[in-house]
Amino acid sequence: MQIEFRRESACSIMTIPSKRLDYMNVNGFKNQMLDLISQGHKRVILDMANVESMDSKGLSAFLFLSRAVGPDGRVALVSVHEQVQKMLVLTRTDRILSVFNTLPEALAAIDQ
Asked: H-type helices in 18-55, by residue range?
């Protein structure tokens, strides 16, 4: 999986191209995210428009990313599919990560 990356304002927007984020591809995702964080990207918006489902490994990758950006960093999810949103609510991960419907909403909140 090759994450698409772009900068907008002080935020790094990363688009996950895969339909699934699961045990099969989560290690590649985490490695790419760690590379970007080590380059100083601490305000991260994950565009989830392509991700239709994920398993517990995918969920743990988001929590890992949340810790990896450190106390001065922020992580937000945008364009989350209904199935993934249900998982975030069920596991209460939506209380840890910020979830937004649109990219402008996420940018406004995370760029502060």
From this structure: 26-38
pTM for the whole thing? 0.90
Question: Domain containing 51 — which CATH number?
Answer: 3.30.750.24
Please state, as a whole number, how many other Cβ atoms lie within 10 Å of the Cβ of residue 104. 10
- Nearest Cα to Cα of residue 106 among 27, 16, 46: 46
d(CA 42, CA 40): 6
Place of tokens 């895969």: 18
Query: How many structural domains are present in the chain?
Result: 1
Domain residue limits at 43: 4-110
pLDDT digits (tens, 9 = 90+) for 89-107: 999 998 888 999 999 999 9
Report the interhelical angle of 56-68 vs 26-38 (nearest 10°): 10
| Region of residue 79 (left: phi > 0; alpha: psi -120 to 50; beta: else) | left
What three-state secondary structure class fits 93? helix
